[in-house]
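Q: Here's a chain of 65 amino acids. Please give me its 3D structure as tokens.
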Amino acid sequence: MIGKAPARDPKVLVRIAAVLNVEAQPLLELAGPVTTTDQRLVRIAAQFSARLESVKPLEPEEEQP
């Protein structure tokens, strides 16, 4: 189901982090497989979410694979 669901597999996230040359832990925390205790990360994620604009529903032809 590529393109339909977020990458939540920890192995995939670790590989993405390696390619991007960043730490995997924050990606794992943001994606959900790992609970975060970093309040700064929680605050930044909340600020990001609050600034997102609403997205209109997909048109029927956009839902087709």
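Q: Can you summarize the key feature?
A: The CA atoms of residues 57 and 63 lie 10 Å apart.
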